[in-house]
Design a protein that fits this description.
The protein is mostly helical. The chain has a single domain, classed as Serine Threonine Protein Phosphatase 5, Tetratricopeptide repeat, CATH 1.25.40.510. Helices cover about 60% and strands about 5% of the residues. The longest helix is centred in the last third of the chain and has 42 residues. About 35% of the residues are buried. This is mRNA export factor GLE1. Its main location: cytoplasm. Keywords: Coiled coil, Cytoplasm, mRNA transport, Nuclear pore complex, Nucleus, Protein transport, Translocation, Transport.
């Protein structure tokens, strides 16, 4: 409910503002230790990214309530935003976007970690689990860039707004696609913030969508094996429907004004 989100937001904001906060049956304050605030900034940013990786990966609609809190905290405490991006880029290089190249002298295991895979006892995680985590983080990022905390300062601008989403999309299309990964993440990104980008960029946005269909999609298709067709077909269907209807629907789970009255 909206009222619960406000409570969570206020608690985090109070903690970062140096006030005493109840947590786990104790009263805590960042002023209790000289590095207290730095530590909390770091851990909070890490927690936001973890929620993308775990929560949003399993429950896609969770992207919006988490993102609106993260965006509001970022606006008041810019340090959290910088650290959020640092954690995000490290865990999901595709959010930069960046595809790490295999350098001489790098072990296979090390390289897999650079690509964002979890490696335990020299065993790499399953591809579908990896994609699910990457999707969760991209969806959270795509939600953050379009959402603002509704009770914040209406004068200021979004600390990391839709222009960053536009840049991400343009940079993705300037890179050679990766099988499975590119189709999955473009679909996730456009499904979550395509509607907002469409409203903001209008004609330019539709030019970009046509470019994806005519030029970029065939390039993804060319490197996709028969076993990786699922994500590609899902993306194709989404593109076709949007271009046909000249509309990108509001994402499922988007927070409507009625939510804040709950």
């Amino acid at each position: 409910a909206g009222s619960q989100l406000r409570e969570i937001f206020d608690k985090i904001n109070n903690l970062l503002s140096g006030k005493s906060v109840q947590s786990g049956g104790r009263t805590v304050s960042v002023t209790q230790h000289p590095q207290g605030l730095d530590f909390v900034y770091y851990k909070l940013a890490e927690k936001f990214v973890n929620q993308g990786e775990e929560e949003v990966a399993s429950h896609r609609d969770a992207a919006f309530p988490i993102a609106v809190v993260a965006s509001g905290i970022w606006e008041i405490h810019p340090r959290v935003g910088d650290l959020f991006l640092a954690h995000l880029h490290k865990k999901c290089p595709y959010s930069v976007p960046f595809y790490p190249a295999l350098k001489e002298g790098t072990s296979v295991e090390e390289y897999q970690r650079m690509l964002g895979y979890q490696v335990k006892d020299s065993k790499m995680e399953e591809q579908d689990h990896f994609l699910k985590r990457m999707s969760g983080m991209i969806r959270l990022y795509a939600a953050i860039i379009q959402l603002r905390w509704p009770y914040g300062n209406k004068q200021g601008t979004h600390p990391h707004g839709l222009n960053y989403g536009w840049r991400w999309l343009a940079q993705m299309l300037n890179m050679e696609p990766l099988a499975d990964v590119t189709a999955t993440l473009l679909f996730d990104f456009l499904e979550v913030c395509g509607n907002a980008l469409m409203k903001q960029y209008q004609v330019q946005f539709w030019k970009m969508m046509l470019l994806i269909r005519e030029d970029y999609f065939p390039r993804i298709e060319a490197i996709t094996s028969s076993g990786q067709m699922g994500s590609l077909m899902r993306f194709k269907q989404f593109l076709e429907e949007c271009l046909q209807q000249k509309e990108i629907p509001l994402p499922k789970g988007a927070l409507q004004s009625s939510f804040w009255r709950s």
